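Collaborator request log, item 7. Partner lab (contact: R.S.) asked for a structural prediction of DUF4440 domain-containing protein to inform their binding assays.
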Amino acid sequence: MSNALATLASPADDIAFYEERLRAAMLTGDLKGLETLLADDLAFVDHTGCVKTKQTHLEPYRAGLLKLSRLDLSDAVVRAAGEDGRVVVVRAVTAGVYDGEAFTETLRFTRIWRRTQGPAGWKLVAGHCSVIL
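Returned to partner:
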């Protein structure tokens, strides 16, 4: 579990597992893991301001365009949004290759999770990231 979320108390306790699964899936390019964690109705605003659906968010992984070598999380804040929602704000230091170009960026993510019925647990329904200058 990432240090950023491992030490937080509830409501972070119930979402830390899913945040770590998301981090691991992003780092390894685990498409199946990402598909499981992302809600079908995902709305994600990337660091360029583009709104992504689940399918467009996954496209760089599917096409082999995005390979992360670093995804270090810190400064996490987790808030309950009702009984079945969580808001996570976290700082991320990233590095990797996108479409053949190396990059290193420090980002701030806001992620909104929704508890689902059945074995899926929590799903990421919305998110936003900004570059930290």
